Amino acid sequence: MDGNAVPLTFPFETPPAEGEAIEVAEGILWMRLPLPMKLDHVNIYALDEGDCWTIIDTGFDTRRTREIWHKLMDGPLSGKPVRRIVVTHHHPDHIGLAGWFQSAFGAELVTTRTAWLFSRMLTLDVQDIPTVEALTYYRRAGMAPEIYAKRATDRPFNFADVVAPMPLGFRRIGEGDEITMAGRRWTVLTGSGHSPEHATFWSQSDDLVIAGDQILPGISPNLGVYPTEPEADPVRDWLESCERFALLAEDRHIVLPGHKLPFTGLPQRLSQLIDNHHGALKRLLEFLDTPKTAHDCFPPLFKRSIGEGEYGLALVEAVAHLNHLDAQGLVTFEERDDGARLYTRI
Q1: Angstrom distance (rounded) from CA 28 to CA 49
Q2: pLDDT (tens digit per residue) in 136-177
Q3: pTM of the model
Q4: pLDDT tens for residues 313-322?
Q5: Is 196 helix (H, G, I), strand (E, B) or coil?
Q6: Of 344, 295, 290, 345, which is closest to residue 319 (Cα–Cα)?
Q7: Are strands 171-173 and 108-112 parallel, antiparallel or unpaired?
Q8: Which residues, in sequence order, are bridge partners of residue 209?
Q9: In sequence order, what DSSP letters do the residues of 14-50 get, joined into one string?
């Protein structure tokens, strides 16, 4: 890490209260919506188009979130219509109400093709019981028996539980495209790892970067492997994205993230994120002096106790880091009789 790098600063020390907004730049409002989890909020942004608004990300589809949106539209958004929803990536806390805005208000949805395809597929893929593939994945990861027993019988989380139905039709953006929002031209740069084809927006007019979850202060985006692509290497994809963004990052940039507080010090933050994951990979490799399952690998990766509420995200991240070491040829694995993979460093 560069010892001369400018440290992170936070221009706004207090986030907006529920139903309220903070102007972070001319024509750009920062708002928050609640989430029912340890990371208890998602940041959303409204960009003033004169006679209407563009909204960046939407929150979960819940009754409470819709009520807050009505309060925001009547209050800080001054009753002007929302005509465009721009979604950074396909995760439910970001795209959850995009379909509602399309259906109820006639808003246009703008996002990457991958984000739209994943979202629409997952909203239509409703399951009442866990799939065979999911249970195989849990066993392969060495999931704790008591958690496995519960997940094997409970109704699984479905995307459609917190994502409104998505009508056909969207406008596609991709790497290198330009989009006009709030009187500014923005360049679209896509990242991966946390989610595929995650859109970030870099203003050509001033120092603003709308980063979604690709670049967060204080926490690292979750890098998970799921039953849909069990051999994926999101750690490689995410590190490559961070290294690419680092070539463009400047201390003058003001980053508007999907969670936590807006910040400056982007070069330093990208360096921290890269170094932190390399450090975690090094600790994990040293830990694999004897065979371990993904479940066993929580201590070197997280260095704290993992509760049941965090267990799922921790497990998919442990699998991701093991997949990365495996792809690099640094570990080998064998399967136990119960189907769990036991990894050992080479």
Answers
A1: 10
A2: 999 999 999 999 999 999 999 999 999 999 999 999 999 999
A3: 0.95
A4: 999 999 999 9
A5: coil
A6: 295
A7: parallel
A8: 202, 255
A9: SPPPTT--EEEETTEEEEEEE-SSSS-EEEEEEEE-S
